[in-house]
Structure formats: C-alpha cells, structure tokens
Design a protein that fits this description.
Helices cover 47% and strands 9% of the residues. The protein contains 9 helices and 3 strands. A 3-stranded antiparallel beta sheet has the order 1-2-3. A hairpin with a 2-residue loop joins β1 and β2. α2 packs antiparallel against α4, α6 packs antiparallel against α7 and α7 packs across α8. The longest helix has 25 residues, at 129-153.
C-alpha cells in the first residue's frame, strides 16, 4: 500500500552535497512580489515562506494542515497563535508558536478560505492512498516549477524548491545560535533517533526561542 504521507524531497537520489540555503536578502526578495491570490505561483510562494517560518515544516505536513491545527492560547494575559500537528514521517508531535511571517500568510488564506485545509492542495476526490500520492506529487511538481519562476524574477541563482525553505531555515537558525539537536530534529536527519534523546528534555519554549531567530 502506498502511503499518501510521504516526505517529498527534490534531489532525493543525489548523493552529492549541495549548498541550498538562501541568504536573508533572498528571503526578503521572495516576500516582495505582489501576486494574484489563489494562483499556483501565489500558493508556491506562500508554501515556501510558511515552511521557512514554521521551523522548516515539510511539504507533506504543510498541505495536510487544517484550520483546527491553529490554536489561540492565552498565557499570562498574552494571547498567541500556535500550530499543533503530528509530523507524518515520524509521528512526532509539534507545538510551535507562530511567527509574524507565518501569521500574515494565514491571514491571507483566511480571506479566501474554501475548505478545512489551509493550503488548497489536497483534492477531496483523492479518495485512495494512490490517488492522494499522485495528487500531492503532481502538485509538488507544479509548485516547484513556479518557485523557479519566482527565483528568476528575484534573480536568485539557487534551484528553488520547497526543500530549500527547510534547508534555509535550518542554516539561519544555526548561524544565529540555534541548538544543533533541535535543528537536526526539525530537519528529520538520519541521526534523528540520536537527537531525540536530547529533545525529550526540551520544553516548547526552547523551540519557540529558536523560531524567534528567523
């Protein structure tokens, strides 16, 4: 049985090490273009930036997010938005405070809300695991093609894909002093089982502080 919850990654079979992280200037240039809402290129831009702002959340987890995953919590008379979800690849639960950039993207989607899913990638007609797999794979191809268009518009030389957002988030956190073990878990690296030993003792505030560095 083919699972729809596959952690799609471009360059999966490339054994060479490539520098994929963008710099801060590139991220700012991607944010600037004003695109027509509800177009494929608009969704591509938003999914890329949401991944960056949400601790490098991968494509599969992003497209499965529903509005129920967004929770408003009041603590010490301060209200904050958090995103609570289970990562499809590992089954690990995440509870993250949403940063300003991610909140702005959510606000844009609330204005065009048509479904329980935040990002309208999943089609309700995909009623079997195989149909779901094919749907997500096809849409990922379209999204990455649009990201290449964005890269051209922004004069970015990197081969822009959804995975670049994950790699960029991790690199920026590391450069700004983020914990290596938290970053390893965030990226789902092969040594994830080792880093999990350290992560078990971390509270949400550790990850929140790392996110605030973005």
């Amino acid at each position: 049985q083919i699972s729809p919850f596959i952690d799609f990654r471009i360059g999966k079979y490339d054994n060479t090490t490539q520098k994929r992280a963008l710099n801060a200037t590139d991220i700012e240039s991607i944010k600037k273009p004003k695109l027509e809402p509800n177009t494929t290129i608009w969704h591509a831009k938003n999914i890329f930036l949401f991944s960056y702002y949400a601790m490098g959340m991968n494509y599969t987890d992003i497209v499965h997010l529903t509005w129920d995953n967004i929770v408003s919590i009041t603590h010490n008379e301060e209200t904050e938005l958090r995103i609570i979800y289970e990562r499809a690849k590992t089954g690990r639960n995440f509870n993250l405070r949403l940063m300003k950039g991610a909140i702005e993207i959510l606000e844009a989607y609330r204005e065009v809300k048509t479904d329980k899913y935040i990002f309208p990638i999943i089609n309700e007609a995909a009623t079997t695991p195989l149909k779901m797999y094919n749907r997500l794979r096809k849409q990922l191809i379209f999204i990455n093609l649009e990201l290449k268009t964005i890269a051209t518009k922004c004069n970015i030389k990197t081969n822009l894909t959804t995975y670049v957002a994950r790699h960029t988030a991790a690199t920026h956190l590391k450069r700004k002093g983020g914990s290596t073990s938290v970053i390893s878990e965030m990226m789902g690296h092969k040594n994830e089982n080792v880093t999990q030993i350290y992560l078990d003792s971390f509270g949400n505030d550790v990850i929140d502080n790392a996110l605030a560095l973005l």
